[in-house]
Design goal:
The protein is mainly beta. It has 6 helices and 20 strands. It is globular.
């Protein structure tokens, strides 16, 4: 389980992943110079830098192999987390090895990736997990930076990062996120390697909490041979698959079957404003039981979750406002375009979330309560 203090870092960490991992390099604004605090070399401020930008993009485009130590430092709401990984990648063979050297969340974890699957071994827990690999790119964070349809650069001169001379490239992003969250993205490229020394992402909009993620690349080797054994993973015979130890998850496409199978009272098949049952899942785990159902009106959809009475005091959560639901106290919050509504009734707790108005959500809740 992720530590409580780290939970608040997850939304922005995920957003950064979306920012630079896939075609979701979005939501960034023009980067400010020298995000790392070093003095800029003003003599190069007026240089065009087009050849330097092209050399950087071509270096990424023509990579055959690369190895580096990646240090990711995330600062959010006056808290800092750091993860150190060793990465080896053979882009020609579509193979990658990532070892987590040090992390607040987990250590001694190795992942081997090919073009279709990833295998992760956690030595501390002696567990092995195999998953499908869905990315088109082996090094998505780096490879996305050379995609000219997504990102272009302004040259901001030279600087020094981690003792290395670098060119400073300020990113211009092709499109914004729907949430219109402003980010600054700066890439510091080694003058002698044309490879990133550091990538810095900053959220300039939320000055109250602030968000900065700095990814530093150390001990970099480019286009040198990597032994085949690097991409082999020795897993003990007694290693277990954590996916085999977890809750039972059952899907129901028929409301009558759901109603007869569930251990909880579930909402009716038809609710207010034309919303009708579409499908549902029952999650039955060790110490928890949830019925999660999707309803749609043909255009919009909402998810309605039912479980045992909640122990969460929503009145203590600053984002939630108190509302009345058929004589019960409910709590409503809205994040971007998504609303969340929670209430307790008849020894059960109900939650509704979806991209609908507060009025629609309250009408759904009232229909459930009266049903």
């Amino acid at each position: 389980m992720v530590p409580d203090r780290s939970r608040r870092l997850l939304p922005v960490a995920i957003l950064f992943t979306a920012l630079v991992v896939t075609s979701g390099i979005v939501g960034a604004s023009l980067a400010q110079p020298s995000a790392n605090g070093a003095e800029m070399d003003e003599t190069n401020q007026d240089a065009d830098g087009s050849e330097i930008i092209t050399a950087f993009q071509q270096q990424i485009e023509t990579l055959d192999t690369v190895e580096f130590t990646r240090i990711t430092e995330t600062e959010y709401d006056s808290e800092t987390t750091t993860t150190t990984e060793r990465v080896s990648a053979d882009l020609e063979a579509s193979e990658k090895r990532v070892e987590i050297v040090e992390s607040e969340w987990r250590d001694d974890v190795t992942t081997i990736v090919n073009e279709s699957h990833s295998v992760t071994y956690n030595a501390d827990e002696n567990t092995v997990t195999e998953r499908r690999y869905y990315f088109d790119q082996l090094l998505p964070t780096i490879e996305s930076l050379k995609n000219e349809s997504l990102v272009s650069y302004d040259y901001r001169g030279t600087d020094t990062v981690e003792g290395q001379d670098v060119h400073v490239l300020a990113a211009n992003i092709a499109e914004q996120t729907e949430a219109n969250i402003e980010f600054d993205l700066t890439v510091y490229v080694g003058t002698d390697t044309d490879f990133p020394v550091q990538i810095v992402v900053e959220n300039q909009a939320d000055v109250s909490s602030g968000y900065t993620q700095t990814v530093t690349f150390e001990d970099v080797t480019l286009n040198e041979g990597i032994p085949d054994s690097t991409f082999e993973l020795a897993v003990p015979d007694d290693a277990t698959d954590p996916s085999e130890v977890g809750p039972d998850i059952s899907r129901y496409d028929d409301h009558d079957r759901l109603q007869s199978s569930a251990d909880l009272s579930v909402p009716d098949a038809e609710l207010s404003d034309g919303y009708a049952f579409d499908h549902s899942r029952i999650v039955d785990g060790d110490g928890y039981y949830t019925v999660s159902a999707t309803y749609t009106d043909g255009t919009n959809q909402v998810t309605i979750s039912t479980q045992g009475e909640s122990s969460v005091d929503y009145g203590e959560l600053e984002d939630y406002n108190e509302i009345s639901i058929d004589g019960s106290t409910g709590w409503y919050a809205e994040y971007d375009d998504t609303g969340l509504l929670h209430w307790d009734a008849n020894d059960q707790s109900y939650s509704i979330y979806g991209q609908v108005s507060e009025e629609e959500m309250l009408a759904l809740a009232t229909a459930i309560a009266e049903g």
